[in-house]
Amino acid sequence: MITTAKISITRICNPSKQEFLNLWKQGQAFIINGVANQWDAYKNWSNSYLTNVCGDNLVPVETYNPTFFQNYNFAFGDYYNHPKQMKFKDYIDIVNSN
Fold first, then answer.
1. What is the pTM of this model?
2. Residue 17 pLDDT more than 70?
């Protein structure tokens, strides 16, 4: 016999600290809406901001072969090009160009 459970998850929008703590203490899952857009990271972390702040930092980058989805072979690990390091600003330029 197959049984299914219907689970309802509470959704709260822009909760106060107390509302958050009350739900958190119950140990139940809940979804929070309307908060991230108030964070400095949300407002400031554009590609241009990050490039200005850390554009010369080296970051590890892995690229996949163009035929990855047609010819992948996970057993042999030949599905990606070997990692390399590049400046963050160069990486952002590549992402923006595609």
1. 0.54
2. yes
Query: Please, are residues 62 and 44 in contact by the beta-carbon 8 Å criterion?
Result: no
DSSP 8-class letter at 64: B
Q: Which two tokens stand for residue 52?
A: 């200005």
Whether 89 and 55 have beta carbons less than 8 Å apart is answered as yes
> How far from 7 is each of 21, 24, 29, 30, 73, CA to CA, in Å?
21, 17, 10, 11, 39
Residue with tokens 């010819």: 71
What pLDDT is recorded for position 78? Answer: 56
Task: State whether residue 1 is helix, strand or coil.
Answer: coil
Name the phi and psi angles at 7, rounded to 5.
Answer: -110, 135
Nearest partner of 50 among 82, 16, 96, 9, judged by Cα = 96
For the chain, how many residues are written? 98
